[in-house]
Amino acid sequence: MARTIEEIKKLIKQLKKVTVENGSAENEARIAAEVIQNMLLKYHLELNDIEATEENKKKEIVKEIMFETGRLMWYDETLLATTQKYFMVNSYIMRLKHLKKSQIYIMGWKEDIEIYKEFYNIINHLMKTSYKNHKDVDKNQYYNGFIKAIVDILEFNKNKNKDKWDLVVINDDLNNELSKLHAKKRNKSGIAPKFSNSVEAYSKGYDNGKQAYNDYSSGNLKNKLEG
Question: pTM of the predicted model, to two decimals?
Answer without folding.
Answer: 0.65
